[in-house]
Amino acid sequence: MKNILIIDDEDKLRSLLARIVKSEGFEVLEAADLKSGFKKLEHNDIDVVLCDVKLPDGNGVDFAQKLKTAFPLTEVILLTAFGKISDGIQAMKNGAFDYIVKGDDNDKIIPLLYKALEKVQLQKKVQQLEKRISDKYSFETIIGKSKGLEQVIDLAQKVSKTESTVLLTGETGTGKEVFAQAIHENSNRSGKSFVALNCSTFSAAILESELFGHKQGAFTGAIKDKKGFIEEANGGTLFLDEIGEMPLELQAKLLRVLETSEYIPIGDTTTKKSNFRLIAATNRDLKTESEEHRFRSDLFYRLNIFEIKIPPLRERVKDIEPLTCYFVNQFSNEGNRKTITIDPDFLHKLSTYCWPGNVRELKNVIERSVILVNGTLLTSEVLPYEIQHQTDTTNKTLSAFSMQSVEKLHIQKVLNYAKGNKAETARLLEIGVATLYRKLDEYNIQ
Q1: What is the dihedral sign for C-alpha 311, 313, 314, 320?
Q2: C-alpha torsion angle, residues 13, 15, 19, 24 (rounded to 10)
Q3: What is the 3-state secondary structure (H, E, C) of 346-374?
Q4: Torsion of the alpha carbons at 227, 231, 236 and 240, rounded to the nearest 10
Q5: What is the four-CA torsion angle of 410, 415, 418, 420, rounded to 10 degrees?
Q6: What is the pLDDT of residue 289?
Q7: Is the pLDDT of residue 132 over 70?
Q8: How far apart are CA 304 and CA 137, in angstroms?
């Protein structure tokens, strides 16, 4: 049921209008002044307000602005006995859906009401979609329970509320874009655009056009003006994936934009401005790349304000089971399959595999397995050959003379020396904390 609020101090006119609107099957609420009308807005889900312009406690034109500020999804149609062009213009500026004259435009009220309701419904659908996107990319939906992943999420949450440039590093398939989306959706720019561009997808010329845009006739094939991703990201976030693949000549232009917020589209002579936050990602070691002159060092230091290194899946063994369960449910639901259970050996094979393609590879393996499974039990028989026949050393008894035994004993000694402090243990061993956790899992060290 659609709710319509009528605000008018003339009782007879208000009652007549209410009967007309009710005859269309709408729920109608009434108010004789702006104060009581606003209270009804606060306590009811109102879709459209039909409001007189001249009321005892104020002006409907001014009220429209207050209403749209407090209830942006509610539309207001203003009714006046004496139409003034200046009032109509101001009403539209204040957010009114329309401004009509009583008596002369009575026939327009119901059609106009339906048009306003269409806009309300569209706005509500957009809001629902935005909420779904926000929920999808929240930090709470990132799957995993390993210490390494928890540390990465903690860093990402802390930086998300700032305006700092973020550099996401890690192997291909670790989920860098998922983290970029989550940072954006939890930032102050969440209501604005998130624009993603993979720098490895295009040639240098096309990448420049995609980034900066171009004017009609700037080059062969430029048949009309084109907005670049930098302009599209204005007010929001620009995510540049595989930024290590960007040609050196474009790196200089990007650096200028980051320092001045200014850029010039290809073929244009006018400088434009864009206020965006940059999140970049790469699977390369940009410090080494810059030292070997394959990446600009000044751009590297501009990007490396806040680096977040996402550990590979082989260092997050505890995340494999929850990720597997999630992907199994996802693909079984998409294929309208019955509930699929997972055999322990299937999980064991996944947990002992090295996953060079990381989470992306795991997702592909699960999708393939769900397609191949007969019945409702997912067994290791449907796994790819290299996973089924991998060499499994996790359950073998370590020889007292093996390097693994020596490593396990050494880690245990250092952990004891550090009184169980894992960060200090990793520092003394001169390895990353994520690597230490992987070793602890591998050797079952508590």
Answers
A1: positive
A2: 80
A3: HHHHHHCCCCCCHHHHHHHHHHHHHHHCC
A4: 80
A5: -170
A6: 94
A7: no
A8: 23
pTM of the model: 0.63
Q: Which residues contact 34 (CB under 8 A, 6 or more apart)?
A: 7, 51, 55, 57, 58, 60, 63
Q: Which residues pair with 76 in a beta bridge?
A: 49
Give pLDDT, residue 396: 47
**Strand 58-59 vs strand 237-241: parallel, antiparallel, or unpaired?**
unpaired
List, in order, residues 6 or more apart from 425 with CB less than 8 Å away.
411, 414, 415, 418, 436
407 class by beta-carbon count within 10 Å (0-12 exposed, 13-18 middle, 19+ buried): middle
Whole-number Å distance between alpha carbons of 228 and 214: 7
Give the count of alpha carbons within 13 A of 89, CB side only: 3
Please say whether the dihedral angle defined by the alpha carbons of residues 245, 249, 251 and 254, taken in this order, is positive or negative. Answer: negative
Structure tokens at 44: 């009811």
Q: Which of 61-65, 95-99, 217-221 has the lowest mean pLDDT?
A: 217-221
Rounded to an integer, what distance in angstroms lies between the CA atom of residue 10 and that of residue 32?
A: 7
Q: Which helix (H) or strand (E) holds 198?
A: strand 194-198
* Nearest-angstrom CA–CA distance, 157 and 263: 30
**Tokens found for residue 356:** 């060079």
What are the tokens at 276?
């965006």
Of 183, 176, 134, 130, nearest in space to 161 by CA: 183
**Distance of CA 331 to CAs 278, 299, 335, Å?**
33, 41, 6
Count of CB atoms situated within 10 Å of the CB of 173: 20
Report the length, in residues, of the chain. 446
Q: How far is CA 204 from the centre of its chain?
A: 27
- pLDDT band at residue 394, thresholds of 50, 70 and 90? very low
